[in-house]
Amino acid sequence: MDYEIKTQGKFKFVEEGEGEPLVLLHGLFGALSNFGGLIEYFRRYNKVVVPLLPLFDLNILDTSVAGLAKYVHKFIETMEYTNVHLLGNSLGGHVGLVYLLKHPEAPIKSLTLTGSSGLFENGMGETYPKRGDYEYIRKKTELTFYDPAMATKELVDEVFDITTNRLKVIKIITLAKSAIRHNLGEELRDIKIPTLLVWGLNDTVTPPMVGEEFHKLIPNSELHFIDKCGHAPMMEQPDEFNQILHPFLQKLGSK
């Protein structure tokens, strides 16, 4: 599915549908394709928004979780969204958390984390970019999923292209190290908004115990596991993911 990429000032984003904004934050190797199932389902009920995070475009000092959180803050402010439902996968979840902790006044109504970093992750960034080794990249990409067939040639090609660009590799490693350093821990008790945690039972990057720890630390949270599912539940098991997310949003007055 191709979506129109809109531009407002320095921001590039996809915006589909009407209603309360559902803002989706992708991870380190994430792209629009990760959210196809979510966009198609929720555009009937919400204004589904995917800002294209500038993973490779920030200056090196801002290439960090905090730098991306600042970008998300400016984006939501510029777009004048209210009653926002924020959803983040992997690094995107971490960025959402840092944004909320820095801006408790932000117009965010709910938070959904799926395979989020912020407490613990088996860092991909340290060893990930072996430049020019396609087979290595394919195997690493497969590890993201329970079903290795999810690592399509198109997806592996996207990751491979990133890892053959020296500057992008430096940015990826910088962001991965920033995520590992920026451990949130007890700060998470300050997240008071309703929070949905959706974890793959077979996630090897942020294992199920990470979801349990988030649940323990975030006061107003509920935790759901999806079986036969890895680090990107909204991508690997979209129907089951949507069946968990939709009632959660409905409870909060979204359609």
Automatic annotation (TrEMBL):
It comes from the Bacteria. The keyword Secreted does not apply. InterPro entries: AB_hydrolase_1, AB_hydrolase_fold, AB_hydrolase_sf. One of its GO terms (molecular function) is monoacylglycerol lipase activity. This is Alpha/beta hydrolase. PANTHER family: MONOACYLGLYCEROL LIPASE (PTHR43798), MONOACYLGLYCEROL LIPASE ABHD6 (PTHR43798:SF5). Pfam families: Abhydrolase_1. One of its GO terms (cellular component) is membrane. Transmembrane segments: none annotated. One of its GO terms (biological process) is acylglycerol catabolic process. Keywords: Hydrolase. Residues 21-237 form the AB hydrolase-1 domain. SUPFAM superfamilies: alpha/beta-Hydrolases (SSF53474). Coiled coil: none annotated.
